[in-house]
Amino acid sequence: MHLPAYGSADPARTYYVYNGAWAFLSALAFTLSMVYYVRDAGLDPLQMVLVGTTLELACFLFEVPTGIVADIYSRRLSIIIGFALIGAGLLLQGLVPAFLAILAAQVLWGVGYTFTSGADQAWITDEVGTDRAAKVFVRSQQISLAAKIAGTVTAGALGLVSLPLPMALSGGGMLLLALALAVFMREDNFHRTPRAERSMAETFKDGLAVARRRPVVRTLVLISLISGLSSEAFDRLWSVKILHFSFPAVFGTSDPAFWFTVLALVGTLLALVTSVVLNRLSPERLSATHPNGVLAVLSLVELSAVTAFALLDHLWLALAAMWVRTIAGTLAWPIESAWLNRHVDSRSRATVISMVSQANAIGQVVGGPPLGAIGRTSLRAALTASGLILTPIPLLYLRLRAPSLSGTKSSVGAD
Fold first, then answer.
1. How far apart, in whole angstroms, are the C-alpha atoms of residue 262 and residue 152?
2. Quick check: 100 and 137 in contact, CB under 8 A?
C-alpha cells in the first residue's frame, strides 16, 4: 500500500520538525515513567526488569524485518506506521496502570520504534544526499536536545498534577505526529522495489553482505554490540546509585522525582551547549568524511566517564561523570550516523542501519542480566564492568583507516 502525501514540505525541515516533536514527546512520556511504574502501577523490582526485557526483545525481534519493509516498500510509510504504534503504546501505558497492560504497551512501543529506526536516517539521506546528511544530523540533534529540555520541564509540571497525564498526552501527540507526517512528508528519491523483485530474504542478504564486506559497516555493527553489552546495566543501575545519596532540599523539597527532572535537564542542556559550541568552532570535525579519530576520542571519554561514575562516592562528582558520558554520546551519534550512511547503498540502507541497532539490542539482552546479577552483590562492580566492557571501542575506531584518494569510488563499494 502506498500512502500519498497531500502536502509537500522541505525534507530537511520536515526531519527537524518531527525529530524535535519526537524528542519533546518522548521526554514528556519517559521523564517520570519510572516513578509512575512504582507509585501508580505498583510494579515490584522483578516486574520493572521484565518491562525493560520485554521492550528490548520486541526491538530485537522486529528491528531487521521492519528495516527490510522500509527498503522494499517505503521509508515514509514505515515512519508513519512507527509513530502510530508508539502513540498507541504510550496511550495504553498511561491510561491503564497495570502490569500486563504495561507489558503490552512495551511491545507496541518497541515494534513501533523499530519501524522508525533506520527508516528515518535512510529517508533523509536519500532526500538530501550523503554529502549534506552529516550537517542535517548535527542540526537535528541540537533541535532534539532543545525540544527534550522543553519536554522534560513540561513532564515535571504535569507530573505534579497527575503522573500518567504526561504519558497519555505524549501518546496522543505521537498519533497526531503520524497524521501530520502522512499529510506533509514527501518521498521523492526513494524508488520502491518492483513487485517482481520484492523479496525480504534477498533484501536481508544484501544488507548482510554490505555489513560483512565493508569494514566501516562491519566495525560499527561490532561497536554497537559492545555498547549494548555495557549500556543496559548502566542505564538501569545509575539511578540506583544516585538514590543512595541524600539530595539537598530546594524550594522546600528533596523529592527524588524533582531531582531526577533537574538532573535530566542539566545533562541535556550541557549536551546541547557543547554540540552548538563545537559545531561553531570546528564544524569540519563533526562532518568529516572519515571521523574515526574524533569518534575514538569520544568513546574514550565515555569509557572514562562510566568508570569514574562507578568509583566516585561524592554525589556531584558522580553526576559530573554521568553528564560527561551524556555529552560524549550525544556528540558521537550524528557523526557516526552520517559515517554509516555514507558507506551504505540506498537499496539496503534501512536494513543495514537496523542491523546496527539490532546488534545493540542483542548486546543489551545478553549483557544486562549478568551485570544486573553482579549488581545485586556489588553495585560498584557492576558499574565498573559496564565501563571496562567499552575498552575495545576506541581501538576499533582507530583501526579504521581512511580510504586512499585514488580509490575513493571503489572504496565506497569495498572499503
1. 9
2. no
Which pLDDT tens digit goes with each residue over 45-104?
Answer: 567 667 777 887 888 788 767 767 776 778 888 899 999 999 999 999 999 999 999 999
User: For the CA atoms of 301, 330, 163, 56, what is the dihedral angle to 10 degrees?
Assistant: -80
Please, what are the domains in the chain?
Answer: 11-184+199-414 (1.20.1250.20)
**What secondary structure does DSSP assign to 282-295, as a single string?**
-HHHHT-SS-HHHH
| Residue 96 near residue 52 (C-beta atoms within 8 A) | no
- 107-139, pLDDT tens digit by residue? 999 899 888 877 888 888 888 887 788 788 888
How far apart (Å, rounded) are the C-alpha atoms in residues 242 and 233?
14
pTM recorded for the entire structure: 0.70
319-344 per-position pLDDT tens digit: 999 999 988 988 888 888 888 878 77
Is residue 360 within a helix (H) or strand (E), and if so which, with residue range? helix 349-377
Closest CA relative to residue 164, chosen from 37, 25, 26, 258: 37
Q: Are 18 and 144 in contact (CB under 8 A)?
A: no
301, 352 contact by CB (below 8 A)? no
Express each pLDDT in 360-380 by its tens digit.
878 887 887 788 778 778 889
Surface-to-core class of residue 266, CB atoms within 10 Å of its CB (0-12 exposed, 13-18 middle, 19+ buried)? middle
- Residue 345, Ramachandran bin (φ over 0: left; ψ between -120 and 50: alpha; else beta): beta
Percentage of residues in the chain with pLDDT exceeding 90?
Answer: 30
Helix axes 130-159, 256-281, angle to 10 degrees: 160
In sequence order, what DSSP letters do the residues of 91-118 get, joined into one string? HHHHH--SHHHHHHHHHHHHHHHHHHTT
Q: Which of 180-189, 241-250, 381-390 has the highest mean pLDDT?
A: 381-390
Residues of the chain by 3-state class (helix, strand, coil), percent to 5: 80, 0, 20
Q: Which amino acid, one-letter code, is at 345?
A: D
Q: Cell triple for residue 313? A: 562516592
Alpha carbon distance 71, 278 (integer Å): 34
